[in-house]
Fold this protein.
Amino acid sequence: MEEELADVQKQRDELNGKLTTVQQAAEESKRRSAELENRLRENHGETERARAEWGCWRLSWADN
């Protein structure tokens, strides 16, 4: 009986360790995803600004 209890406790400890690892990986994935979303948003803003500048440049060039 004590041996079975020790085995179950060992299994529980192993599963808790695996759960902790998976939870940490999930948190890192969320952090990385948020970071990439921010970079994408910034890049989109830069692209829009470049398009606006290019459009203004093209218009001023066409006027000459």
Residues 16 and 22 are 10 Å apart (CA to CA). The first helix runs from residue 2 to 63. Residues 1-64 form one domain.
